[in-house]
What we know:
By secondary structure, the chain is an alpha+beta fold. 45% of the residues lie in helices and 14% in strands. The chain is built from ten helices and five strands, in the order βααβααββααααααβ. Helix 5 (97-108) packs across helix 10. The longest helix has 13 residues, at 150-162. The termini are close together.
Amino acid sequence: MGMYGNFKAVTSEELDKFLACSTEEEISALLYVDQELDTSGDYLEIEKKWQGLHFLLTGSAHGGTPPLSWCVFGNHSIGGDDKPIFFGWIGIRYLLPNEVRQVAQALSETSHEVIASRYSPHDMDQQEVYPIGIWERDGDSGLNYILCCYPAVVSFYQKAAFQNKAMLIYITS
Length: 173
């Protein structure tokens, strides 16, 4: 069991349906993805790598400078930032199509080598980057664990940007 990072590319019309939701149940009904049957390519799960990836993109467990800080934690909350509708760990966060394009561009300009150079097991353990307590223990294999999802995330954002899609971002357990 753990917390898993998920991305779902949606059209503006689909995003409007999510924005009209007022309960977790409504969101869950719209969000359900049967990974084995989904052939759209509009869904990506990065397992437990989400906060490690955020750290490598921004240098911190939370926050950072947009647009890279938006990649894992989005820029807006469904339900609003004051009263987000919770689904999973952080609620459903999202990016508008123009923000998806900004993230896609920033990701494509950020190489493996650049994000690898930001790997700091000590700092990650100090900031309690999820999965907590593994970074110093695992050393370089922790970096490889995160980096293996990076090409898929870059490609996923590029495809969504090309298709002028919004992005839903959520953490499930």
